[in-house]
Write a structure and sequence with these properties.
Elements lengths: L2 H9 L2 E10 L4 E4 L4 E9 L2 E5 L5 E3 L4 E4 L5 E4 L7 E2 H6 L7 E9 L7 H5 L4 E3 L1 H6 L1 H16 L4 H24 L5 H4 L3 H12 L7 H7 L4 H12 L3 H19 L4 H8 L4 H12 L3 H14 L1
Parallel strand pairs: 2-8
Antiparallel strand pairs: 1-9, 2-7, 3-6, 3-9, 4-5, 4-7, 6-10
Length: 300
C-alpha cells in the first residue's frame, strides 16, 4: 500500500495559499484550529512559530513548517507582539518588509483527518539549510514563488499542484529520515504493519484482538504479533492502549465532552474502566487532568 497515495486519494487533499505577504515588526498572525493541515514558509527574513501547546520554533530563511493536526498557533516576529486573525491580516497585507511569508493549508474533502496524518507529530519543521540541500523541495519552492509573483491565468490551479507535490516530497523525506527508528514511522514502510496501523487509527474504539488484526492484513497471528512488535517497538494491544489514552487526553483538553462519552469514544466499556486506565498511565484521574490543563491554559 502506498501510504501517501492513499492520503491524497482518500482525502482529496488540496493545497491553498492563504496569504503571501511581507511583514515589518511588530507583527503576528493567529491561526485557529481547523480540520486541515497548516503550512508556513519563510521565503525571506525570520519569524517564530508559537503553538498553543509545545515549544516555540525560531524560523529562518527558507524554513518550512507543517502542522498536520490543524492545531491553533501563531506566526509572529516576537511572541510579545500584537496579533490579528488571519482574515484581518489578509486585509492589511504589505508588498515590502523584512520577512516574506507564504502561509496556507491543505484542506480535505472530509472533515476527519486521515488516520495516518493523525500519526504525525504536531509540527514537522524543515530548516532552510536542509530544504536548500534537497533539490526537489528547493525546486518546488522556487517554482511556487515564481508562480505567486506571476499571478497569471490558471495560477490558483498551478499553485495547488505545486503544493501537492511539495506535500508528498515533505512526507517522503520525513519517512525516509525516520525509517530505521522503532515506531510507526518505520512501520509505514512495511505494507502489512502499515495497514494494521491504519486500521487501529481508523477505529480505535473497536474491540480489536491480535487475531483480528492479523486477519485484516493477511498474516498468521504469531507472525503478525512478532513483526508488529519488532517494527513498532511494542505489542499491537499495547500500542492500541496508548493510542486510546492519547486520543482521550486530546479530547479532555480540547472538548467539553463528558467523561463517559470520551470513554465510549476511545473504546472503554465503562467510565470506571477508563478512569482506572487513565490514572494508571497518566498518574492522575481524567477529571483532575482536564481541570489542571484548563487552569494552565488560563495562566498562559
Amino acid at each position: 500500500m502506498d501510504i501517501l497515495a492513499d492520503i491524497l486519494t482518500v482525502t482529496r487533499l488540496t493545497g491553498h495559499v492563504a496569504c503571501h505577504a511581507w511583514a515589518e515588526p511588530p507583527w503576528g498572525i493567529d491561526f485557529d484550529p481547523a480540520p486541515k493541515l497548516w503550512f508556513h514558509i519563510v521565503a525571506a527574513g525570520s519569524a517564530e512559530l508559537v503553538p498553543v501547546r509545545g515549544k516555540r520554533i525560531a524560523l529562518g530563511p527558507h524554513d518550512l513548517v507543517l502542522l498536520p493536526h490543524g492545531s491553533g498557533h501563531a506566526i509572529c516576529d516576537d511572541p510579545r507582539s500584537p496579533r490579528v486573525p488571519l482574515a484581518t491580516w489578509r486585509l492589511r497585507q504589505r508588498k515590502r518588509g523584512r520577512t516574506e511569508l507564504i502561509c496556507g493549508s491543505y484542506t480535505l474533502a472530509f472533515a476527519e483527518i486521515h488516520p495516518v496524518l493523525r500519526l504525525l507529530p504536531a509540527v514537522i519543521h524543515v530548516p532552510g539549510v536542509e530544504l536548500r540541500a534537497d533539490a526537489s523541495l528547493q525546486a518546488c519552492l522556487d517554482l511556487l514563488l515564481r508562480e505567486l509573483a506571476r499571478g497569471d491565468v490558471g495560477t490558483e490551479r498551478v499553485v495547488a499542484r505545486i503544493l501537492e507535490v511539495m506535500f508528498v516530497l515533505l512526507l517522503r523525506r520525513w519517512l525516509d529520515a525516520n525509517a530505521n527508528r522503532p515506531g510507526w514511522l518505520g512501520a509505514l514502510r512495511d505494507e502489512p504493519i502499515g495497514r494494521a496501523l491504519v486500521e487501529l487509527h481508523t477505529a480505535p474504539a473497536r474491540a480489536w484482538t491480535v487475531a483480528q488484526l492479523a486477519r485484516e492484513v493477511g498474516m498468521s497471528r504469531p507472525v503478525f504479533a512478532r513483526r508488529f512488535t519488532q517494527k513498532v517497538g511494542e505489542t499491537p494491544l499495547g500500542y492500541l492502549r496508548k493510542l486510546r489514552l492519547d486520543l482521550a487526553t486530546r479530547l479532555l483538553v480540547e472538548t467539553a465532552e463528558p467523561l463517559a462519552k470520551i470513554a465510549e469514544t476511545v473504546g472503554y466499556t465503562s467510565e470506571f474502566a477508563f478512569n482506572r486506565a487513565f490514572t494508571r498511565e497518566r498518574g492522575t484521574p481524567p477529571g483532575r487532568y482536564r481541570s489542571g490543563a484548563a487552569a494552565a491554559a488560563d495562566r498562559a
